[in-house]
Amino acid sequence: MIAxxxxxxxxxxxxxxxxxxxxxxxxxxxxxxxxLAQQQDGFLGIExxxxxxxxxxxxxxxxxxxxxxxxxxQHSIAREMGRSDWYRTFKTRxxxxxxxxxxxxx
Amino acid sequence: MIAxxxxxxxxxxxxxxxxxxxxxxxxxxxxxxxxLAQQQDGFLGIExxxxxxxxxxxxxxxxxxxxxxxxxxQHSIAREMGRSDWYRTFKTRxxxxxxxxxxxxx
Lengths: 106, 106
What we know:
- Helix content of chain A is 36%, strand content 41%.
- Chain A has helices spanning 24-38, 63-71, 73-86; strands at 10-19, 43-50, 54-60, 87-104.
- In chain A, strand 2 and strand 3 form a beta hairpin.
- In chain A, helix 1 runs antiparallel to helix 3.
- Chain A is globular and about 40 Å long.
- Chains A and B meet through strand 1, strand 2, strand 3 and strand 4 of A and strand 1, strand 2, strand 3 and strand 4 of B.
């Protein structure tokens, strides 16, 4: 679903990845991390889509919330497992959302 | 593929959409728009993934390049067809990429 974020300014973490192969542990961990992120202060929403590429964009109130999420202990462990086992390549981009536009069919 | 963007600062256009149904014209137009975007001044890269949600993130040198792309005649026509026929809902977010991090398996 498209995330119902507030009016800008807010932040986006654009996380783009390719994985080494299908892996049940990876899928379970990814789901768990989404649930955990949703419980964090400053979390605004998340959008995810995947085919060859996995794109997950999470939205945050400010850089402080992103830093806290980055330093979350369970998230740090998951990230290390990702680096050691699951990801072939990834790129994380921290971006300040300055404007947005919506369309909804009537 | 993960886009090989330059060092920040640069801009991201995060375009998240759901469509009304599968449509060959939509798929062909989407492909044509990617090819056209790649020819524009200031274009830096594009990433796309899709399941129920379609997430396309394009990267641009500056706000001027994004404005020019928005005003491109063929792109404007495609956007109107999207509003009239294809999209159920979409959200466009313009964001300034301030930092990025990479991982590549050795």
